[in-house]
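Lab channel / #folding
Pinned by the channel admin:
"Please post every new chain as: sequence first, then the structure tokens as a reply. Keep commentary short and put observations after the output so the thread stays searchable."

First post following the new format, from NK:
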Amino acid sequence: MEYITSLGAYMVAVLAALLIAARWLLKHDPALRVEPARDTDCRPRSRPDD
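Reply from TO:
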């Protein structure tokens, strides 16, 4: 029974570490950041293109 308990605790700890690492990576990795597209000509559009 002690083996099953320690194995379960190990699995929970690994899962928690993976979730923390994924959260940190999504927050801090510049390659995963999505920046809004900017208009290059800086002129306001009066109507959408057809």
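NK: The longest helix spans residues 2-28.
TO: also worth noting, DSSP finds one helix and no strands in the chain.
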